[in-house]
Amino acid sequence: MMTQIYKRVALIGLGLIAGSMALAMRRAGLAAEITGYARSEKTRKVAAEIGLCDKVFDTAAEAVKDADLVVLCVPVGAMASVAAEIGPHLKKGATLTDVGSVKRAVIDAVSPHVPDGVHFIPAHPLAGTEKSGPTSGFAELFDDRWCLIVPVQGTDADAINRLRNLWIAMGAKVDEMEADHHDLVLAVTSHAPHLIAYTMVGVADDLARVTDTEVVNYSAAGFRDFTRIAASDPTMWRDVFLNNKDATLEILGRFTEELFALQRAIRTGDGDHLHDYFTRTRSIRRGIIEAGQDTDVADFGRIKG
Ligand code: NAP
User: Is there a contact between 44 and 70 (Cβ–Cβ < 8 Å)?
Assistant: First the structure.
């Protein structure tokens, strides 16, 4: 059933997340009109050509005019300047939300630019790929994935419910979380793992002796899967680490301690320690599959037959 939730939705930043939101909203008829703006003329041109949204504007101010929902889909480090630009042009009663991967820093950056009568409701869909840009979106990105809504104190309950309904209608499961807790949880589940993948691929690349041939040709599951994560957008991830500094450093500190303990177990031949550790981690993978957050296909579906 097609149920319109917002009349006019403006997407600021036209990449993977905005493109996927536009397709997911169209799939279920959730918006009467979708407008958009991106920084570069090139992205705006591509977005207009593929019909990512109904109208692409040359300024963010024009794109948000009369919008009932404005979604900031730019890298975390660009949120403040974009909010400053659109603030004076937001309609009274409109909802302003974002999809940034970090929440405390985005709340601090955006809040000062939100005029009275506009509901600012931060959010973060836990769904993505290593692809970026206006052609990378797809309607199913949010299906069965979580979207965390991080309301600031005193936010209008009806406005929160409406945004919650939008994410559910786009296929997501919705939960609410406090900003600092969000940033710590994401440091464990996403930010630190990305940094570790970047590091591992960097280390292999440093071994120039093997990079040209062996590492690439004989790339086995472990390294190959790191390379997928390490292919993620450099701007987005630079901004994530610069804006979730404390939580990421806390988790990396713990990671380093564990790594040293495993390193010592290998050196001293402590097989029991290694075996116990790997048994514990294996059960975490099982939990993720049982929660429906990944499939149990062997080798990520690469092995055929
Ligand atoms: P993306 O594909 O790289 O798209 C980013 C868009 O933002 C581009 O259209 C870019 O325009 C625009 N932009 C960049 N700086 C800007 C500025 N200063 N002013 C106006 N527009 C600007 O990125 P994405 O993956 O959709 O990520 C968008 C947001 O979602 C980020 O905050 C990210 O943390 C969050 N997020 C990402 C994922 C993921 O896995 N990718 C998952 C969840 C949340 P140009 O092309 O013209 O530069």
Answer: no
pLDDT of 1:
55
| Mutational test site, ligand 1, from 23, 56, 101, 103, max ligand atoms within 8 Å of CB | 101
Correct CATH for 181-290 of 1.10.3660.10, 3.40.50.2300, 1.10.645.10, 1.10.150.120: 1.10.3660.10
Task: Encode pLDDT of 249-272 as tens digits.
Answer: 999 999 999 999 999 999 999 999
pLDDT of amino acid 304: 41
Q: Which of 195, 188, 122, 191 is nearest to 155 (CA)?
A: 122
Q: What is the pLDDT of residues 59-99, one digit of tens each?
A: 999 999 999 999 999 999 999 999 999 999 999 999 999 99
Centre of ligand 1 to C-alpha 115, Å, is 24
Q: What residue's CA is closest to ligand 1, atom 41?
A: 128
User: What pLDDT, on the 0 to 100 scale, is given for residue 278?
Assistant: 95
* 252 touches ligand 1 (CB under 6 Å): no
Q: What is the pTM of this model?
A: 0.93
Ligand 1: nearest atom to the Cα of 126: 43
CB 4 within 8 A of CB 29: yes
Q: In the CATH scheme, what is the code of domain 6-177?
A: 3.40.50.720
Assess whether the C-beta atom of 100 lies below 6 angstroms from ligand 1: yes
137 lines ligand 1 (CB under 6 A): no
Distance 16 CA to ligand 1 centre (A): 7
Q: List Cβ neighbours of 122 (8 Å cut-off, separation of 6 or more).
A: 97, 98, 100, 103, 106, 107, 110, 149, 150, 151, 152, 179
pLDDT-above-90 percentage for the chain:
82
Angle of CA points 84, 100, 145, to nearest 5°: 150
CA of 236 to the centre of ligand 1 (A): 7
How many angstroms separate the alpha carbon of residue 25 from the centre of ligand 1?
A: 18
- Predicted confidence band at 296 (pLDDT cuts at 50, 70, 90)? confident
Domain positions in the chain are 6-177, 181-290
